[in-house]
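Chain A, query sequence.
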Amino acid sequence: MFNEIDAQFLKNNRTPGEPEKRWFRDAEQESDLFVWIDSSGQVARFQFWLKEYLIEWDEEHGLKTGLLDRETGSFSSIQTPVFNYHLKPQTDIIPSFYNLIKEQVSTQKEQPLFRHILAVLDKTRRPDSEGKLNR
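Chain A, predicted structure.
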């Protein structure tokens, strides 16, 4: 289950005019979820790490996937992990992320943030009529 990490651990979380950043961690699943909330309270962007995989979404660019670059040394120090993005989204990794968020939604009924992320991931799991990834 995801627990929110105190905002004091995030760099520059309260920059004027920038979205607020929130961090959720599921230590058991080795998963982190970072969410940027705009001034109107809507999800502007999210970045979801699951072990060595990444899914990132924003309204302008849609969904991107990536893989942790293990050569960065981020596992041997407190550095932020570096991800290499796939040229084309790897939709086969989406179900693992989707299931984690779905479980969170089922246990916390009053969490609109997680419901929004679930809806975004649900759309990406279903290709449109031309077989393209929905955004």
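Residues 3-90 form one domain. The two ends are 26 Å apart (CA to CA).
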